[in-house]
Amino acid sequence: MNIRIGNGYDIHRLVPDRPLILGGVKIPHHLGLLGHSDADALTHAIMDAMLGALSLGDIGHYFPPSDPKWSGANSLLLLQQVDELIQAKGWQVGNIDSVIIAEQPKMKPYLGTMQEKLANTLKIDNDQVGIKATTNEKLGPVGRQEGIAVYTVVLLVKS
Ligand SMILES: [Zn+2]
After folding, report:
1. C-alpha of residue 33 to centroid of ligand 1, in Å
2. Cis peptide before 105 (omega within 30 of 0)
3. Where do the domains of the chain lie, and which CATH numbers do they carry?
4. pTM for this model (two decimals)
5. Average pLDDT of the chain?
6. At the N or C end, where does the chain have fewer CB atoms within 10 A?
């Protein structure tokens, strides 16, 4: 098989006094995402999808929240490490498709910059990184603005 597919999911709580960072982009908002690292749910979901495609486990295994080393970590640097791991195993990212689910703030103005940052980190073209955003129609915890969730699929191709 020359292709592998992986899916990733992540959710982080929205709390005061934390930055809101998605895809490496700091988004102005009165709430931010709670987590051990920078809590970048988009980048985390992508890493989990890349690892999952090769049955390599999940990011908790490589960057355990119990390790103070990852406190406040820039998730793009973690993504770079995951990319190096899959490349060492002979694979590269074919394309990524992600959906951010957030009631607030509006994501659309930031999607292009997220795409650019993720593509630069993975050294692939911008059009290999799809990012969409939707609301949860005010339903459930995401709809009540208690958190932001992300779903991702990643296709890996043999290099
Ligand atoms: Zn996460």
Report:
1. 9
2. yes
3. 3-158 (3.30.1330.50)
4. 0.97
5. 97
6. N
